[in-house]
Each structure stands twice: as structure tokens, then as C-alpha cells.
Amino acid sequence: MTAMGKVPVALNSHAAPFAIRSERASDVAAREALLDACFGANRSLRTCQRLRDGRMPAEGLAFSATRGGSLVATVRLWHVGVGGRPALVLGPLAVDPACQKLGVGAALVGHALAAAKARGHGAVILLGDAPYYARFGFSVAKTGKLSLPGPFECGRLLALELREGALAGVSGLIVPAGRTSPHGMPRSAARTRKLAARAA
User: What pLDDT was estimated at residue 196?
Assistant: First the structure.
């Protein structure tokens, strides 16, 4: 699959087909509402958000899944530095509760990884459920000596090499990289962190 265009995907005999395409500016409001519904109003306080704040997604690696003209899932990949090497971090992945367990999320992740590989990226890291992401090849094999800028469970820090040896021997703190956003930190993130600081 490529990163461009719209890819129709059939789920199963009981589910309407959906399409995967590159994210559009018109998706933003629906995407943010979906992320709030899936992760809650305090999602901006999550550790991996510190790798995304004030940054733009990697070029060509922000995707939406639509069904009947409505956005039902989203995923984006972001540039990070891993022990001095370039990599991507995947997330957040969000799927409308009404479309969960239909294969939408798996199709979206598979599409995103194929697009990242086609663009020449060497590795993808994420913080997530190991049994779910194992189907794509993610594991803790390359992350034992890596850390994040905040609390996390070691067994949930996973990596996938898109190019053999891309993460060989890496260690240290995973840090944000890539283009900075012209809008700076998202307003919701800034507001949530301000409220959290006042409550501390």
C-alpha cells in the first residue's frame, strides 16, 4: 500500500466497508473529538504526548479511516531521536467504539507501517499493548535500554525495525524531533497542563 490516495478495505460480512486515506485539514475537529472519547480529557498528560507536543507529524504519515463519510479511526507517526538515531513513534491510535473489534485499527496500523517503510524510515517505536502489537512485529527486544520523558511500563515500550539493524545497540532517552508546529503546543494540552500545575 502507498501513503497516498484512498484505500478501500472490506472488514467482514457483517461490517460496512471503510476507507483509509491521508489525513485532511477537515479531519482535525473529528479527530480531536475521537481522541477525547477514547483517551479522556487528560490525554495530553500522557508520557508519549511529550514526544508530540509542539511538533508536526512525519510527512505523509498521518492517516484517517472513514466509514460512510465519517471519520472512525486515526493514527499518526512522529519523528523522534533514539540514542542519536532517527526513528518514528506511532500514536495515538484511536478507533470509534462502534467500530472496534472489526479490524479497523489493525488495518490502519498496517497501512501506516507500510507507508513508513516505503518512505525509507528504519524503525517505529510505540507505547502500547504488547499482545496486540505483536501481530505487526513489535516487541521489547530492542527497547530494554531505552527510556521515555515520563513514567511508563517497560513491558509496553515496543519497537519494530523496518530496516534490519536500525535499532541495534541503541540506548538512552527517546526525544522529540522533526518539524515544529507553527501553532506551538496544542491549546488543549497547554490548558490541561496549566490546570494540573495549579492543582499540584
Answer: 34
Angstrom distance (rounded) from CA 14 to CA 196: 44
Specify the length of the chain in residues: 200
Give the pTM: 0.83
Q: Are 61 and 69 in contact (CB under 8 A)?
A: no
Residue with grid cell 531521536, as numbered in its chain: 81
Which residue in the block uniquely carries the three cell numbers 531505552? 146
Q: Yes or no: is domain 6-178 CATH 3.40.630.30?
A: yes
28 vs 160: CA distance, rounded Å: 28
C-alpha cell, 99: 467500530
Nearest alpha carbon to residue 93 among 53, 137, 48? 48
Q: Tell me which H or E stretch contains 27.
A: none
